[in-house]
Amino acid sequence: MTETAETSSTRRPARRRQARGEKRIDQLLRAAGRVFHEKGYAGATTNAIAREAQVSPGTLYQFFPNKEALAIELGRRYNQELRDAHSEALAPGNALLPLDDLIDTVIDPLVAFSVENPAFHTLLEGGDAPEGYAREHDTVSASLVASTQALVQARAPELTDTEAERITQMTFAIFKGGLDLISAHTGAARDAYTTQLKSALRGYLAPLVGTDALTPRPGDA
């Protein structure tokens, strides 16, 4: 069926309005992230977020009824970015990489994500963010842990599930401690702490999973 000129001209303004709406939502969410990071969830207000976004409170309320809705949508976007960042980094085939390359492949996107989105951790660590924010993160975190454990077991198939789980949990504990230092610094200091984090991970993992590249076994995808 051929689209008439009238139908086409009607749809174009609707698409423009939709694009403007999406742009405004992005603007509000970026502003909310900055305010949440600076003031915490409890200290943030919709008026402060509106000022940061350089819009009126009325404009904000056209898209979000309250700061809880802003935090939940911000968390949804953060967690989707986190999934996307590691959809390839935690792929099973990466277990074949030399350990140094594997650490770079997994750690670099996580560090970049955390540095670019400081409010992500501010909301999690504050303990007062909406339940939906933490709940969705718990789901993503469990998936990251499971994928990491699969890489550990692929490199060291002789490990029991319990041993691999303990190694994975310790790996995450080392990472989280290093990430706190990385996030608290900038420039050369941040780079130095990133290097030290990778060295700490290598030192812990090398005796447990080896350092060399692995040869694919028959039947591996």
Q: Can you give a write-up of this model?
A:
The protein has 221 residues and is an all-alpha fold. It folds into two domains: 1-65, Orthogonal Bundle (Arc Repressor Mutant, subunit A), CATH 1.10.10.60; 67-214, Tetracycline Repressor, domain 2. Helices cover 78% and strands 0% of the residues. The protein contains nine helices and no strands. Helix 1 crosses helix 2. The longest helix has 39 residues, at 5-43. The mean pLDDT is 89.
CATH topology of the largest domain: Tetracycline Repressor, domain 2
Instruction: Name the CATH homologous superfamily of the largest domain.
Output: Tetracycline Repressor, domain 2
Q: Strand count, sense and closure of the main sheet?
A: none
By DSSP (H or I, 4+ residues per run), the number of helices equals 9
Order of helices and strands: HHHHHHHHH
Overall number of structural domains: 2
CATH architecture of the largest domain: Orthogonal Bundle
Oligomer: single chain
User: What integer value in Å does the Rg equal?
Assistant: 22 Å
Beta-strand content estimate: under 5%
N- to C-terminal distance:
45 Å
Query: How many E strands?
Result: 0
